[in-house]
Amino acid sequence: MPKIRFKRRLAALAVGVLLAALPMTATSAQAAGGSEPAVPTAQGFVASGKPTCSTDSSAPTLLGDTTPDLTAVVHLAAGGSPSGYLRAHFDVQARAADQTWNEKESELVPSSGFVTDGQVVTTSVRDPLTEGTLYRMAASTWSYATDGTEYVSSPSTASTSGWCYFTVDPTGPLAPVVTSGGPYTLCTADDCAAHGGPGVPGTFTFAPGEGDSGVVAYQYRFADSAWAQVSGSPATVTLTPRDSGQPLLVVQAQDATGGWGAQTQVFFKVAPPAPSVGLWHFDHGQPGDTSTAASDTATGAGDRHAAALSGTGADWTALGRRGDGDQALTLDGSAGYAATSGPVLDPAASFAVSAWVFPTDLAQDRTVLSQTGDDGSGFALRYAAGDRTWQFSYAWNDSAGTRHVAYAEAPGGADHVWTQLAGAYDSAAHTLTLYVNGRPQGSPVALPDAATARTASGDLEFGRAATADGAGSSAGYWKGLLDEVQVWQRTLSASEALQDAKLESPDNGWPGVANVAAWNASGAGGATLPDTSGYGHTLTTEGGALLDGNAIVLDGTDGAASTPGTVVDDTGSFTVTALVQPDMSVISGKPDGWTAQVVGQRSADGSAWGIWYRVAGHDDDYDPGADDPAPVPATEWLFGRVGTDGAFTGAVSQEVTIWTPGTADNPVQVTGVFDAQAGTASLYTGSDEQGTVPFTPVPGSGDLTVGKADLDGTGGSYFPGRVTSLGLWAGAMGSNGISGLNG
């Protein structure tokens, strides 16, 4: 713990003047009966709701009072006296014309007596502040010895949460009055009840401050969004919070001259998002048992809706998206589907859907999930083969009975990989949003105000959609696997869609990972190495590569192995690992910067991703049998991509191996993790994390290769060494899983 310094308060000094300091250790402070203070919280300016504080100097809080009230909550450090002898120290500074900051006022509160841990302290600025000047305020906690003669100060809020920037304007409109028309209620000092939820709109009315006149308009915003304006006074607006919690709403009034007045800042509490009204894990049956329906395990409002499997073309499979022990729904693409008995969602109101998909054939239109009324209105989450796009469609009929369809869409991905899709309809904003692997695909698609599907709708169908002619026929049968389907009777925020795509376990929070490729060369010979994951990605050797019964042996010249097509969705989270042993008899002669790929997948402009081995440089090593030092290579591991220009982006091992004579050439478990939701690439050797860096995915378009990289379509970057085993997973494996790879 750093040393603390106590300060002696000189009685002759007036309150508000900085006090002389007398050094004192923490031990001495405790002996004197004092306690270590902590940084204050809730610092800012007294307004309705919570204290207001803008830490952005370019967007200061505007106050209508030239002697504003300052506030903070003082604290003791953990383990301190339960009471304490505390005061708050407020520091106000003004920015000069030369952009320097000068002391304007220093307040010690209370001026006599003390407060205790967790108490709110408030004071007013003594001397009126000047309009047009930028000010800033910070606070610290001062803890006194029991005799009140010595104290120790906590760090200032300026060094933790930041300065509170503000200006004053006593001539503009007064701070407006803000009221809520429901479902939300404004927070007070004594009550802050949660209502509504993310995506649930609420109405708010703005009116002039008491006794104010001449207000013609208002501007308002949430703390993390841009200003919006509304004309008239009073004025009512509808606002839709994106997330749960306590959003800060900032409002200003405008007069006829165009001047903006003091701000009103209010909080209201948004309830946690309503749980899904339908959730199908597809893990309740056994292969061949099509009589067992998929259970709906959602906890949201309403009845549960089991999904019955069709008599033919639908079955259960052990290849579930959550990995070992999980199951999924498998459909044949011609007759197989599952369906509830009756509608699950009201498509006239806000709703959202999500599903994990593993297509095995995208040569024709395929439907993931749909609900269609007898008038053709409703929605579908689908793949359009002609456009090669994922689509979230919404259909409705106008007053003349003409059917219309709008789409939110994104470029389609590869088949034989797990991809997460989600669609959200916001009835208040009249927009559609499509998410792929948790990421929104472009801006929301705006719909006409009259675009509303009929409330009464058909069954929720998995793997097909009713045709628009109302004849009772279906089309777009899904071929492949479906899993983890979830529906909500509300829209989804971007952060919720991102969270949903992580597929975290409700029990331990670990992300679900599915082993989609597993190769172990122990006991293998010939030219092919089977995939034991169940997904069927057989490796075939080429050139000088061979299977010697223990490993894939790569000569570094033309030896490699490959499997057709993509194995994981490069835009989604995935994990790759290899137990690999470099052949240093070959690598020792390579120049600085030489780079070879152990395993990876090609993209249109280089590699989509790969585990790489690189000669970082050479060190001189003393050899007693030689006259001069001999250069030895220093090598490092990499996880990321190399473009056709040879430039690497990704994670690099922190540790560099210098291959001095006698260095053990042991196999290394090298693991790469791409977390699509976090946008990062991580590299591990053994169980040790070597680095995590921002990483932007590039979709793969070619074979997965071992021992080489097709950077320009002709092959190259050959790796010399032995690869004992390899594995790939859909999903970002956590540290617990990575530790298990080395067990």
Question: What proportion of the residues is helical, as a percent range?
Answer: under 10%
CATH class of the largest domain: Mainly Beta
Label the overall shape. Answer: globular
Structural class: mainly beta
Distance between the termini: 38 Å
CATH topology of the largest domain: Jelly Rolls
What is the typical, i.e. mean, pLDDT? 89
Report the biggest beta sheet as strand number plus sense, adding barrel if it closes: 9 strands, antiparallel
Bin the strand percentage: 35-45%
Radius of gyration: 32 Å
Uncertain residue ranges: 1-29
Number of domains: 4
Number of strands: 54
SS summary, helix count:
4
CATH architectural category of the largest domain: Sandwich
Quick structural overview:
With 743 residues, the protein is mostly beta strands. The chain has four helices and 54 strands. Strands 20, 22, 23, 25, 30, 31, 32, 33 and 37 form a nine-stranded antiparallel beta sheet that branches. Strands 39, 40, 43, 45, 46, 47, 48, 49 and 53 form a nine-stranded antiparallel beta sheet that branches.
Please characterize this protein's 3D structure.
By secondary structure, the chain is mostly beta strands. The chain folds into 4 domains: about 5-165, Immunoglobulin-like (Sandwich), CATH 2.60.40; about 175-270, Immunoglobulins (Immunoglobulin-like, Sandwich); about 280-500, Jelly Rolls (Sandwich), CATH 2.60.120.200; about 515-740, Jelly Rolls, CATH 2.60.120.200. It has 4 helices and 54 strands. Strands 20, 22, 23, 25, 30, 31, 32, 33 and 37 form a 9-stranded antiparallel β-sheet that branches. Strands 39, 40, 43, 45, 46, 47, 48, 49 and 53 form a 9-stranded antiparallel β-sheet that branches. Strands 38, 41, 42, 44, 50, 51, 52 and 54 form an 8-stranded antiparallel β-sheet that branches. The relative contact order is 0.08.
